[in-house]
Amino acid sequence: MTETPTERPPEPSPEFLPKLVTVLREGYGAQDFRADVLAGLTVAIVALPLSMAIAIASGVGPERGLYTTIVGGFLVSALGGSRFQIGGPAGAFIVLVSACVMQIGIEGLILATFLSGLFLVAVGALRLGTYIKFIPYPVTVGFTAGIAVIIFASQMKDLFGLSLGGPEPAEILHKVEVLWEARHTASAAAFGVALATIALIVGIKRLRPGWPNLLLAIVLVAAGVALLGVPVETIGSRFGELPRLLPAPALPVPTAEAVMAALPFAVSFTLLGAIESLLSAVVADGMSGRQHRSNAELVAQGVANMGAAVFGGFCVTGTIARTATNVRAGSRSPVSGMLHALFVLGFMLVAAPLAAFIPLAALAGLLAVVAWNMAEKEEFWGLMRASRGDAMVVVVTFLLVVFRDLTEGIVVGFALGGLVFIRRMSEAAEVEAAQAPEGARAEGANPDQVVYRLHGPYFFGAAARLGVVLDRIADYPRAFVVDFSDVPFVDSSGARAFELLAHKVARKGGQLYLIGTRPEVQRDLQVQGVHAPLVQVLPDLQSVTAAEANR
Fold first, then answer.
1. CA-CA distance, 170 to 449, in Å (whole number)?
2. Sign for the pseudo-dihedral over CA of 95, 98, 104, 106
3. Which element (helix H / strand E) includes 155?
4. Which domains are delineated in the chain?
5. Which PROSITE patterns does the annotation name (predicted)?
6. Which of 93, 307, 440, 497 has the fewest CB atoms within 10 Å, counting from its CB?
7. pLDDT on residue 548
8. How confident is the prediction for the chain on average, in pLDDT?
């Protein structure tokens, strides 16, 4: 009896295959695991204070930052398309999350985070991750510098120990105005704690680069404040003792009204999360020489956001600083990211009561250092000197991010970057006379034939400029030849311009010939109606001479 072979389920597309699966297939040994344990521990030490600091700056309790790191960070590494990506709460989300909490509350934030997870999965499933990576460099620099300013502004209250009469405004100009009015409430003790934290972070980094400077600075300052009885606000005095366990999974009731209120924030979280996570993955690729899978990464980010929301967390994305730390610490695989989340869970189980002693001014000092490091000051000034186009894009993006809205800054910056690129590409396109229609000619040249060679892409940006030149030349010859050998592509506007040109040449009793066209260019021209008998597409100039002899 012949045994029917068992049908195997189809394997997932390599484009969506988690890097963890790839690593395990390649072979994963004890030495790799030891390296990942060390890297995961190193990243966890960095992530622990950062997670709480970002959560507090975002207007939520520090425990929600830990939930986000534990659940979101684990899922990003387990399912993602990068070997080294570390997921968790990011400073870039501070202004969006705080605005969301102020307008629709914690439950609205959790619902918006869950919805953004659904959107991210859809973006990845539709394979849009490839396009998100095309954001121009000046946009990312302006965006990052703007985020750095926003993060620093969000910490001024705790940095100086100010007491406000009401909630702190989200809009930066109004925020600065309110903080200035409260300057008489500044606390010398809080400012001293913040300065001590900054000095320790910078000093340890310079003297002992391999030591965990962020955690050590927070621990030392917290211990000093507790021992000396310095009168500053702490996590315990504002939020109480942190929980030791993850909460039971739950979600707010998604009523139509709640969904509509959360939807604008969910869209902003999705756009910013996709950009931030893929930018972080690209940084990891540059440091490691590996290649991430964009769409798999976005799907994982989506699942991580849904998972974090279910456990009371908020926005999860790839974090550049922690990912870079992971690579530098010798990570071999996504296992290090999964372990980093488990180490943070272990810290929460064991040391949650100790977190109550951490001064808020110390966390503000930590975030001030983070803001300074992420500002990309040299890159910003380099782009300011590079060209007027790049300077315009980086400045406009920066100003919109700081004074208007993160999403608006990205969208407008991307549009401006596209316009600058179009202008440069149109200027790169040229028309070169290979055989002039009048004046001196080489001996034996056909006086009724003119040959012009195009250089560069012939698209809508170049069509308007070069079309005038070609249209003027078309008044002369009986045979008008255009050499396409150096044209990589033609869009519909460029093809339309040649259709009009062919009609003009025909009215003068001539014929338009295209030579040296690449197969894909010829196909695009034909789709737009540029084909025989209106236009003759021939391989070379000799073929044109033969065709003219028979015409």
1. 68
2. positive
3. helix 137-160
4. 29-417 (no CATH), 429-438+445-549 (3.30.750.24)
5. STAS (PS50801)
6. 440
7. 77
8. 85
Q: Is residue 284 over pLDDT 80?
A: yes
The phi, psi pair for 331, rounded to 5°, reads -55, 145
Please choose, from the candidates 350, 288, 374, the residue with its C-alpha nearest in 3D space to the C-alpha of residue 23: 288
**In the predicted structure, residue 462 carries a pLDDT above the cut 80:** no
Q: Output phi, psi for 176, to 5 deg.
A: -60, -40
Which amino acid type is present at position 454?
Answer: L
| pLDDT surpassing 70 at residue 1 | no
Encoded tokens for 240: 């109480």
pLDDT at 549 over 80: no
User: What per-residue confidence (pLDDT) applies to 442?
Assistant: 44
Read off the tokens for 489: 């592509």
* 317 bridge partner residues: 88
DSSP state of 1: -
Percentage of the chain beyond pLDDT 90 is 36
- CA-CA distances (angstroms) from residue 321 to 43, 326, 373? 10, 9, 9
Which two structure tokens, joined as six digits, stand for 463?
A: 């069509």
Q: Which two tokens stand for residue 369?
A: 């250092």
Q: Tally Cβ neighbours within 10 Å of residue 352.
A: 17
**Would you say residue 97 has pLDDT above 70?**
yes
Q: Which two tokens stand for residue 103?
A: 């307008």
What's the chain's Rg over C-alpha atoms? 30
Report the alpha-carbon distance of residue 423 to residue 308 in Å, rounded. 44
CA neighbor of 355 nearest in space, from 48, 70, 31: 48
Residue 294's nearest CA partner among 282, 311, 312 is 282
Half-sphere exposure of 399 (CA within 13 A, CB side): 7
Biggest CA pair distance of the chain: 102
How much is the pLDDT for 261? 94
Per-residue exposure over 173-212, b if at least 16 CB sit within 10 Å of its own CB, e if not:
eebeebbeebeeeebebbbbbbebbbebbeebbeeeeeeb
